[in-house]
Amino acid sequence: MVPPRNVVKIAVQMRDAIPQLIQLDQAKPLAAVLKEVCDAWSLPHSERYALQFADGHRRYITENNRTEIKNGSILCLSTAPDLEAERLLRGLQSESCEGRREALQHLVLLAPDMTFTREVISRDGLQRLGSIIEDGDDLGEVLALALRAFLELMEHGVVSWETLSIPFVRKVVCYVNMNLMDASVQPLALGLLESVTLSSPALGQLVKSEVPLDRLLVHLQVMNQQLQTKAMALLTALLQGASAAERKHMLDYLWQRNLRQFIYKVGRTRPGRPFPAPLLVAHTHTRELAVLQNIIHSAVPLGDEMAHHLYVLQALTLGLLEPRMRTPLDPYSQEQREQLQALRQAAFEPEGESLGTGLSADRRRSLCAREFRKLGFSVSDPYPAPCPCLKPGLLLFQRAGPFLSCLSPFPQNSNPAQDLERVPPGLLALDNMLYFSRHAPSAYSRFVLENSSREDKHECPFARSSIQLTVLLCELLHVGEPCSETAQDFSPMFFGQDQSFHELFCVSIQLLNKTWKEMRATQEDFDKVTQVVREQLARTLALKPSSLELFRTKVNALTYGEVLRLRQTERLHQEGTLAPPILELREKLKPELMGLIRQQRLLRLCEGTLFRKISSRRRQDKLWFCCLSPNHKVLQYGDVEEGVGPPAPESLPEQLPVADIRALLTGKDCPHVREKGSGKQNKDVCELAFSVSYDHGEEEAYLNFVAPSKREMG
């Protein structure tokens, strides 16, 4: 006889007792089920007991989650959560250090369970843990366990981080700033301060004022990868919480203190010599090392969380360019007029010579305009006339000199400053051109003079190219865009040299000139050339070259001919699938191919995938694993520790029968995407999100995912 649908066959176990095999009626109250289980073992007072899942985090069974119990589930009988919380909190007050340690260990194990967490918090458990952390009587394992338990309880969001007291936060800061500290304590203290900074602006300011940047730099140079990651997490949290002016000041200081080298390079000290500042305040174990541990080129693979924080650091640093990118050139600014003049002089006037010595003012003005046109500015009239609407004073100003007259307000298309009034790129394009002329003067002069000697229609306009190229680089590098919550797409070469954006421009503008010649382009082909250059840069950046020199080598190897070949290959690949003979053959092979595809997909589902948990408050560093059971009947899933390989399916605590699945949702239809809103920063989450809806009793429930990458999503 087939049992009713709401009856499941399970096992219940208890220490030092023979397990019970029972049929659990889901319609029966949980208290009645507990009474029957306790009676079978002759246990009085069934209200003092509770059922837990035997695997995973040993979550308590409640009326809300009991539908997760499936056929074959193994449960265990344990102390009720309220009594267990009370017992462990009494253990925290034990005079014995061993007693407190044991209570904290059990607290850490049970803290991921929401039912248990509510019981602990309702009994002032956070305050008791806070007292242990503030007292700091034991700076070793007990303190580390207290910090871990505190973090686990706060992760549930039952209590706001803004409720923490200032003395408590200052004490945690003290642990971060200590020189001699247990290696397990400081990563947890840094993680706690990161959560505080992201969740409370007021307490974030306190953390910013109490934790010196030099101290975080010290943590970034140790051999402990977890400590490095948490230090970088707090650093990026502080930068994100700072105002634009404060962020610029902080980043300028960090670059001065060689943050880039700590991330990118390996530094060595000579025998018998001390570490350079700020390593004089480093950890005891760090002082004994002869090699300073970097991050990108470490022997240990870069973790996902560190990759995300490096992406954030790169995005915030590039974000400093946004004000220049959105500011148009002011033709009345003396400094900006002089910068434009310097561009012209670097290209056309030998050192020590001045423009048109001995020539009349009109002739000098004409020569100046022609040279700006040769630079690629849209100065079309070599003999501009004063604008009749100008006031007498401004007209005098216009005729004051050859350069000033070229840049004063002129009739349309006669002023080079007009080209830089477009935003973006605004003044950022001028910054790039000046950087190129000053740091690569030979290449700059060669670019301008080489194009000046060509026919007019074959000239590659330097200024116009620079302006468009700056826009292109800003788009490719997402300058000025909000930081994503999950992205890890940082470029290693960004940390390889100072002024990385300007250096990248110097390589790219020479690439554009090279591609222009390869395409034998004319002025009418300008847009086509920039499209090819965009493709060259995008393809090369996608390879994530480790240095600017490697980027230069790869992008120059991607010639116009190679781009055409790649385009043709991709086009043939696409068109080939639509050709009639291919379609006919495809129809014949379709049944066999579909069978192979189904088999491959089932194998991939059985292998499983690691997913990262994303909360609405901040990016978490927790992982969970999901796979299809070998018999293809249930989805098995559960939390896993970072750095641990994929778990065996039978060890996963949670199960979802495939028969209960209603639908697969993607993108904006997913409930966890709708909850997060529709801001730009959640665009990538939307693209990677999917949910499985399934029957949860009489209601519909969801299992929510965020795919690790677009490839995994596909």
TrEMBL record:
Q: Which GO terms describe its biological process?
A: actin filament organization; apoptotic process; cell motility; phagocytosis
The protein's GO terms of the molecular function aspect are: SH3 domain binding
Residue ranges occupied by any ELMO domain in the UniProt entry = 335-541
Keywords for this entry?
Apoptosis, Phagocytosis, SH3-binding
What domain of life does the native source organism fall in?
A: Eukaryota
Pfam families, per the entry:
ELMO_ARM (PF11841), ELMO_CED12 (PF04727), PH_12 (PF16457)
**Listed SUPFAM superfamilies:** ARM repeat (SSF48371), PH domain-like (SSF50729)
Q: Main role?
A: Involved in cytoskeletal rearrangements required for phagocytosis of apoptotic cells and cell motility. Acts in association with DOCK1 and CRK. Was initially proposed to be required in complex with DOCK1 to activate Rac Rho small GTPases. May enhance the guanine nucleotide exchange factor (GEF) activity of DOCK1.
Q: Write down what this protein is called.
A: Engulfment and cell motility protein 3 isoform X5
Q: Which organism is it from?
A: Delphinapterus leucas
Q: What is the lineage of its organism?
A: Eukaryota, Metazoa, Chordata, Craniata, Vertebrata
